[in-house]
Design brief:
By secondary structure, the protein is an all-alpha fold. The protein contains 17 helices and no strands. Helix 7 runs antiparallel to helix 8, helix 13 runs parallel beside helix 15 and helix 15 packs across helix 16. It starts with 33 loop residues before the first helix and ends in a 5-residue tail after the last helix.
């Protein structure tokens, strides 16, 4: 990889009286100085520059610098430590990597000495404060917050540094689960250094969650990195939603665990789906509903006679359209298990081979149930 190239620092346009040309009758407040506008353009780099560590590990669509800073700011709001100045912590989170808008996210493997890294970042902050923001009150506040964070002398600065470490570890775990990457070095370099009680507690919970993923993988002879999709809002955590460790594509989607025409390897379910499709459909609906609502398998395996069963039975018996309900359920299953595909494919699978569709859906649910030890 070629060495990092640093762009020259911003050169100011002149004194504050030289604003962007506007009509003579324009309100004075609209005479925005180009140096300040240059700062606004500069910090847009934080939205587009990807964090170097994730890029080096080939993480698809990795987080940006501002992604990292934003989540830290929200985390700061969640502390129960009443001795901290939370407002200051939130603002410090939002400026602590501000210099990276110009110098970028310098990683240790680049071989740039720490003193040189600090010098360049400090020069960038001075460039922002004096040349772009002209020592305005906002500039002085940014400079004070950044300096306080770098010096680590206050409780707020040390707390924000711990958030910096924890956020990186949390992101590493999420990437492990989503992309099948071994990222142990990110945990080793962050979690042991955390000191604040709240953040240390969050880190302990993260380690337990990660250890549970390891145990679950070992118990069911799956790879440690199981690429399980994360639970979405309103969804219980549930079990392993990618028990066979199918690889995820760049959109975070995967294939079905079993092929549509592989239904004969589950002969019992396939025959049941041929003779009584309404019952299999109803049981599938109840089983996944229990997983979503309770976060655990239905101990009864889904009732034979349910509302979903009767709806399918009536539609199929009187109109031959039971496949409509199957199609809708197939789409919901794909959403839960992050399976690639679309509405057209769901319709074709349900209409052209209803028993195969029911069997494939049933087996996908069964794999999650098995991760709890249900079978």
């Amino acid at each position: 990889m070629p060495p990092r190239e640093f762009a020259p620092l911003y050169v100011p346009t002149g004194d504050l009286g030289k604003g962007i040309p506007l009509p003579a009758d324009c309100h004075p407040r609209l005479q925005l100085h180009p140096d300040r506008l240059a700062f606004f353009h500069l910090i847009s780099n934080l939205k587009t520059q990807k964090r170097t560590g994730w890029v080096d590990h080939d993480i698809p669509s990795p987080e940006s610098i501002s992604d990292h800073m934003f989540r830290m700011a929200v985390m700061a709001m969640c502390t129960s430590d009443e001795k901290l100045d939370i407002s200051k912590c939130v603002m410090m989170c939002l400026v602590h990597d501000l210099a990276e808008a110009h110098v970028g996210d310098i990683a240790p493997r680049e071989g740039i000495p720490q003193d040189e890294k600090r010098r360049r970042e400090a020069a960038t902050i001075q460039n922002i404060v004096h040349d772009m923001l002209h020592d305005s009150p906002a500039a002085k506040q940014i400079e004070a917050l950044w300096t306080e964070y770098e010096e680590r002398k206050t409780p707020e600065a040390r707390f924000v540094k711990d958030l910096d470490r924890f956020e990186m570890a949390a992101q590493a775990f999420e990437y492990e689960r989503a992309h099948g990457k071994a990222l142990q070095s990110f945990f080793d370099s962050s979690l042991p250094k955390i000191e604040h009680d709240d953040v240390k507690g969050w880190a302990e919970v993260l380690e337990v969650e990660r250890a549970a993923a390891v145990y679950n993988a070992m118990a069911y002879q799956q790879p440690y990195i199981n690429q399980q999709p994360m639970a979405t809002m309103g969804m219980k955590a549930g079990g392993n939603r990618n028990a066979l460790g199918k690889p995820m594509n760049s959109d975070g989607k995967r294939e079905w665990s079993h092929g549509l025409c592989d239904c004969f390897s589950a002969c019992g379910t396939c025959c049941y789906a041929c003779w009584c499709p309404c019952i299999v459909h109803g049981k599938n609906k109840q089983r996944v509903a229990h997983l979503e609502d309770k976060g655990s398998p239905d101990p009864e395996g889904g009732a034979c006679c349910s509302g979903a069963c009767w709806a399918h039975c009536c539609l199929q018996t009187f109109f031959g359209l039971g496949c409509i309900l199957q199609c809708m359920n197939r789409g919901e299953i794909r959403g839960r298990y992050a399976i690639e595909g679309g509405c057209c494919g769901d319709c074709l699978s349900s209409a052209c081979c209803g028993p195969c569709d029911l069997t494939q859906v049933s087996r996908e649910i069964q794999l999650e149930e098995q991760s709890f030890g249900r079978y």
